[in-house]
Amino acid sequence: MDTDAGLHALPITVDYGGQDLSITPAVVETERGLVLFDVGPADSGAVDAIETHLRALEYDLTDIWLVVLTHHDGDHAGALATLLERTDAVVAAHRDETPYVTGERDPIKGSGDDRYPPVSLDIELTGGVRVPTLAGPFEVVETPGHAPGHISLYFPDGGLLVAGDALVADGPGDGADQLSGPKPEFTPEMERALESAAALAELDVEHTLCYHGGYVPAGADRIREIAETDRH
């Protein structure tokens, strides 16, 4: 599924905690190769599923030169070590996510008994960083709340937001109502997460790609509704 020129959603279903989980990593083409947004859980077959998608796009895993993690949760970062066994990709995440990714701290929503293999972080991101791609540059937007250093990726040229878990797309129907705010049970700082949603609503977002739920033809107006409704 292509959500914008040069950007491809990669919907996959993986095993996570003994249950099927539908997730949507994504790749965007650049002059250097592919940038991958999030990976999937450890020991879930996520890397093989991503590889299958990439072959359909006439790419391979080795074409991934950069992995951008929206945050450190196991369903996003757990399979990163497996991916790095098969690629030479550079890894980037927000600096506040660093200790969780590298193993200095256990994931906030996990434990030391079941944490995923830690990996080194090559680039620490902050808000405002821009990366050129064939879909136009994407900008790192700090969206903390769901995780301390959660980030979303904004493509201003196409009005596209790659939301990570700052938003989810699991509402009824197939329109804007599909888009909703982060799940309170998985969001340690819900008020902060809603402040992040309000900040996203100030961007010229026309459509959104969520890690949980995939693509939604909804943007700033719907995001503003979410932020205002959930905060009252």
TrEMBL record:
Residues 22-212 form the Metallo-beta-lactamase domain. InterPro entries: Metallo-B-lactamas, NDM-1-like, RibonucZ/Hydroxyglut_hydro. It comes from the Archaea. It holds the Pfam family Lactamase_B. This is Beta-lactamase.
